[in-house]
Each structure stands twice: as structure tokens, then as C-alpha cells.
Amino acid sequence: MKTKLLSKWLFFSLLLASNLSFSQQNFSLKEAVEYAVKNHINIKNAQLDILNAEARVNEIKGIGLPQVNGNFGYTNNLIIQKVFIPAKTFDPKAAEGDVIAAEFGVRNAGQAGIGLSQILFDGSYLLGLKAADVYKELSKKALIQTKQQSAENVTKAYYSILVNEERLKLLILNMGRLDSLLRDTKALNVQGFVEKIDVQRLDVQRNNLKIETQNVERLQDLSYYLLKFQMGKKVNDIVVLTDKLADINVDELLPENELDLKYGNRIEYSILQTQDRLAELDLKNQKVASLPRVVLTGNYNYSSGRPQFFDLFTKPWFNAGSLGLSVQVPIFDGFQRKNKVIQSQNNLRKVKNSFELLENSIDLQIKQGQITLKNAYETLQEQKANMELAQEIVRVSKIKYKQGVGSNLEVVNAEISYKEAQTNYFTTFYNALIAKVDLDKALGKLFVE
Asked: Which of 194, 260, 280, 348 could potentially form a cystine with 188 if both were Cys, beta carbons 3.0 to 4.6 Å apart?
């Protein structure tokens, strides 16, 4: 019986393990970014915007194609209109001035036909075709911008997890060292070599360290949720990061003194260039509105009218056709077109002015990024040295304490200083990584399509 239960337990354990391994996915930073730019909802919506833009282009092109419409109509004249005519028209013997009321029409009338219209010339339509293509280009650039934003968010969330992972390792290691020291101190207290207050100090420090470890663990869980959200995955999916903080070469974080600045590398600048073209086309469109519009029209119809309804289906119908040319020439519109031109000119000037503002903004972002990253890099080196020094102080203070030439308070203070140095180091490390991401974004190097 026990053997059967053990076999079932092993079977279900293996099944559960296989399901977990199947649902688990491993991601490097590069793979996480690639996954996000393919699967995030914002990316998918931006791709749908491109499809809409393509459909909009085809819609505008369709305006220039022949427009064909069919029609069918039936009318039942319940009360036929009467026409008053002189009586002498039908009866020469009628008195002068007499009139008769004659029905003019039939009770049942039917009409069916087909109509066609074709634009021969329309300046606004021709410019609309160009604007539609530019609008499609703008939607493609908006997709790139969305991908860059997604790459930035994923990168920052990924780095946050890597830093917290190392912090957790050190906190757990510190907890183990502190537990060992606490056991030794309790033993010394029992033997009468140390006071109870020494044990209490270590208990307080251990409790603080335990709380901090729990907080970082919860923060790590939140960081994983955030990363999965930024990647476009379900928050309950299992994600394992393959990159490690130790794989990052800290020296590569140091920015170069001279950077190759090209405004065109920034997608915001490229989008503004496209908006500039749209503004120019809008201005041209307002100006060409004064040109004539030429439209070719054609109609071909059949009609019939009978006193009896069913005669419409048994008696012959009569055809008619027409071909026409319509030329619409704007003469006076109450100065509407003039004011539309003024508005378009002002909008174009605003876009031109935005170039200078964006260039200055990019320059500022790059300078800020350089300075922030350089400060973070130098601070990181100092914090690393401080952490190593604090670790050495802990080691020496413990030796002194065991040899009876140091105090328990000295050990506690050294442990606290060491933990603070660790926290400062990893905080600075994260700040340096984020500063690197921000600088790459300012240079337009964060994500390349």
C-alpha cells in the first residue's frame, strides 16, 4: 500500500515538475526586449494603427476612381395632381373662361437606373494622396517610438531585478553571519563572559535585518510583476532571468567625452520632420482649393408609369441617358479660404519653431545624461571601496571581540556600517545602469529597428 502511494506521489511530482518547466521561460535582457517589442499590447495597437493608415490611403485613392451607384424607385400617387387648363382646349364650344381640372400623371410610377461620376481634376484630391502616404509614414514612426519606450521600460525593470537579486544574496549572507555571531554571543552570555545587553543588541540588529530582507523579497516580487507587465506577459507567468549583474562590465558604463550627436537618430526628431511635411501639404491644400474642380457624370435610366400596379411588370419601360461635365469654380466664399490659409501658415511656423526647441532639449538631455552617468560611475567606484573597507572592519572587529579586546557594540556598529555600504553600493549601481539607459535614449541608441 505504501509502495503504491509512493509511486503515485512520485508520478504527480514529476508531472507537476514537467508542467512548471514547460511554462517557465528564460530570458536574457536582449531576449526580454525582443519579446516585448513583439508582444506588448501597445506594440500590437501601434501595428493596427499602421494597418488603419494603409486602409486610409486606399480609401482616399478610391475617391479618384469611378463612383458607380444603382437606384430603383417606386411611387404610388394616392391623389394625382390636377392641372387646370382652359376648357376650349378640348371643347371649342365651351364658354370663354371655363377651365377643367385634368389629372396630370398616373397612379403608379417606377424608375431604375445607374449613375456614374469621375473626378477629372481636383487639386485637393491630389494633395490628399500625398498626405495619406505621409500619414502612413508617421504611423510607422509612431510604432518605432512605441518600441523604444517598451525597450526602455523592460531594460530598467530587468536591471532592477538584477540589483535586487544581489542585494538579497548579501542580506541572506549577512543574516547567516549574524545568526552565527548571535549564537556565539548567547553562549558567552551563559558562561558569564558577556552581558545580556550584548545579546539584545544583536537581537535588535537581526530583527531589523530580517525585516529589510522581507521588504526586499516583496520588492523583488513586485519587480518581476513589473517586468512581465512591460514585456506583455501575464503577471502569473514564470520568468527566469539568465543575465547576471556580475556579467556587466562596469567600466563600459563610463560615457565617452565626445559623442557622435545626430538629431536624426532620435525618433522624436524624425516624427517632427514628418509632421513638418504634413503641415506643408496642408498649406498647399488650402491654396489649391481656389482651383476649379472638374467632374464627369453619366446616367442611364429606365422609367415607366401605369394606372395599374401590375402593368409596371407587363408593359414596356422607356430608357433615357445623359452625359455631363461639371466644372465648379470658387468665386467668393466669405474669406473662408483666406483664413484657412493663415491658420495653416501659423501651424507650419509652429512646427518649424519646434525643431529648435527639440534640438535644445536633446542637447540638454545628452549633457544631463553624461554628467549623471559620470557622477554615478565615480560614486560607484567609491561605494565599492567603502563596501570592501566596511567588510574588512567587520572582520577585524569580530576578531577583536573574540579575543576580548573589542566590544560587542563595536561589532554591531561595524555590521550596520557594512550593511549601509552594501545598500549604497547597489543603489548607486542601479542608478548608473539607469543613467546609461537614459543616455542611450538621448543619443537615439536605445533600440534600433
From this structure: 194
DSSP 14-29: HHHHHHHHHH-EEE-H
**What is the amino acid identity at position 308?**
Q
The cell numbers describing 36, all together, are: 516585448
Q: In what order do the strands lie in the sheet with 293-306?
A: 67-76, 108-121, 293-306, 318-328
Domains located in the chain, CATH noted = 35-65+122-291+333-443 (1.20.1600.10)
Three-state SS for 114? strand
Each residue of 14-49: pLDDT tens digit?
A: 544 444 444 688 999 999 999 999 999 999 999 999
Q: What is the arithmetic mean of pLDDT over 328-349?
A: 90
Cell 554591531 appears where?
412
Angle between helices 196-231 and 29-39 (to 10 degrees): 40
Which region holds residue 101: left if phi is over 0, alpha if psi is between -120 and 50, else beta? beta
Residues with Cβ within 8 Å of residue 291, at least 6 apart in sequence: 121, 123
Instruction: Give the number of other CB atoms < 10 A from CB of residue 120.
Output: 12
Alpha helices in 329-407 (DSSP H): 336-402
CA distances from residue 19 to 25, 32, 242, 261 in whole angstroms, order as listed: 12, 22, 20, 50
DSSP 196: H
Give CA–CA dist 349/303, Å, rounded.
57
